[in-house]
Design a protein that fits this description.
Length: 322
Amino acid sequence: MKIGEVGERKLIESFMKFVDMPSGVFPPFDDTVAFRAGNELLSFKIDTFVFSTDRPQGLEPYDVGWKAITAVASDMAAKAASPYLFQCSLSLPPDTDEVDAIQIERGMSEAAKAYGGALVGGDTGEAKDGVIAVTGIGVHVNGAFVPRKNRLALGDLVAITGSFGYVALGLAAMMGKIKLSEPILSRSIQAFKHPIARIESGLALVGLGAKASMDSSDGLALTLHELASLNSADVEITETPADDPLMTFFKGNGIDPLPFVFYGGEEYELVAVFPEHVSREALRELGFKVIGRVKTPGSGKITYEGNELKGEGYEHFKAEDP
């Protein structure tokens, strides 16, 4: 059976059979892996950007570098870690323009600095396809790791950062699948090209008593399903995860918002679960919007406006619909 017939999730499940976690390293299959070094709690993460699958036409070299670092920084934010050091393995085809290569490196360096860290080196190589593998180390300045899996309770609040839908809309516009006008066009393109990892909101997770958190880069629906399934819970979405201007755009143009809001991917937002008693005002001040509640026990079902959402999102190796 080919990998494309198995899919990324099945491949990960198979890979986890060979994972051996040394003492003091935890947990397996989370956004990052944590370990203690002296008195510090650290996290590390690796993520890969492949040009043929991750770079649509119109994504400039600088944006490629920025996004490669952002992907790692966002996973750290979801675990309440502050980025510290980044290294990259940069492999490019031999016909790559030198100026483009420098712009990729510049994008990575400036993103690392923007997130409070530094790009400290790595490796370069030649490949038929452009590939950037970024490894990052982050510091848990509050001394705690916020996991995916935890003990959730009936009524716990499900909250997000940002507004979902702009990124998928921007990608569709860049690929010529939809025509947009201003100001939605600029905001959507910017959201896709230059995402911002939510470091400050991530560092606030511990103080707000977050029980669980994940990065949403594979899509909101898939992220919600993973959180719910891991914690044997159901989630009812009671508030729209997109902001008012975007929903007004969808309604005014007769566009179904669900594919863009729930099934897009690459938002690099946080999806977190908080105790029911946490102040919504406190959450808003730190960048979170409550969009739903937890129901326990459950089987991982997600409902929105009375309908069940499928557990779908972006997955590598996923076969295209015929």
